[in-house]
Amino acid sequence: MTIHRSFAGSGGLTKHRNVLTRQERLDQLKATKRWDKDQGIFGLPKVRSIKVK
């Protein structure tokens, strides 16, 4: 199977993503102390995904 041309080239697979996985969201919420293990994993608050240049 070939790779789509939008992924090929310089850093194609490391582009900025708008949607984070649940684990990435939990990591960011833990870092800002907005979530701990006693809370559930459903109904998480929104997390901004800031593009790093």
Please give a quick description of this structure.
By secondary structure, this protein is mainly alpha-helical. It has one helix and no strands.
Structure description:
With 53 residues, the protein is an all-alpha fold. It has one domain (14-53). 19% of the residues lie in helices and 0% in strands. It has one helix at 22-31. The longest helix has 10 residues, at 22-31. The mean pLDDT is 81.
Radius of gyration: 15 Å
List the total number of helices: 1
Number of strands: 0
As for the number of domains, it is 1
Principal-axis shape equals elongated
Uncertain runs are none
**In percent, how helical is the residue content?**
10-25%
Given the helix and strand composition, which structural class is it?
mainly alpha
Distance N terminus to C terminus?
A: 31 Å
Output mean pLDDT: 81
Which sequence of SSEs, written as H and E, runs from N to C?
A: H
Major sheet, described briefly?
A: none
Content of β-strand: under 5%
SSE blueprint and pairings:
Elements: H1 22-31
Features:
single chain, 53 residues, mainly alpha
